[in-house]
């Protein structure tokens, strides 16, 4: 399929697809000047989106893709690295939750103090 159909199929934008191509995440087949996308490109795009949605940067995703290309999908090395990155992401999220909880509690205290000065 051409880029227009690919974009419609994935409900994305031309700019997003071109950006993923520029950073090396998507590599469409070429026929002269025309690019063609296939089902495996759809799968790659969906994996990229899923990893982005859980907080991975495009750089991290590219590193995982490059590792997969060099050691093979399903290799112990790749699985170990994915597990490590997932654990790091969970730790980052835990830290963010902790920080947000403190900020929320501070805001509640301020609101309580303000409510004492000027009741609802």
TrEMBL record:
Sections of the chain in a coiled coil: 83-117
GO molecular function ontology, one term from the record: DNA binding
UniProt key word Coiled coil: yes
Domain HTH merR-type, residue spans: 1-67
Name recorded for this polypeptide: HTH merR-type domain-containing protein
Source organism (scientific name): Sulfoacidibacillus thermotolerans (Acidibacillus sulfuroxidans)
Keywords, ordered alphabetically: Coiled coil, DNA-binding
Pfam families: MerR_1
Record keyword Nucleus present: no
């Amino acid at each position: 399929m051409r880029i227009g159909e690919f974009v419609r199929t994935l409900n994305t934008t031309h700019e997003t697809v071109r950006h993923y191509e520029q950073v090396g995440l998507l590599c469409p087949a070429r026929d002269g000047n025309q690019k063609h996308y296939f089902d495996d490109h759809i799968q790659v795009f969906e994996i990229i989106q899923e990893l982005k949605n859980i907080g991975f940067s495009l750089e991290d995703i590219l590193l995982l893709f490059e590792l997969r290309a060099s050691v093979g999908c399903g290799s112990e090395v790749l699985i170990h690295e994915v597990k490590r990155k997932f654990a790091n992401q969970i730790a980052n999220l835990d830290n963010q939750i902790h920080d947000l909880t403190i900020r929320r509690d501070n805001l509640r205290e301020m609101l309580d103090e303000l409510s004492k000065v000027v009741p609802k």
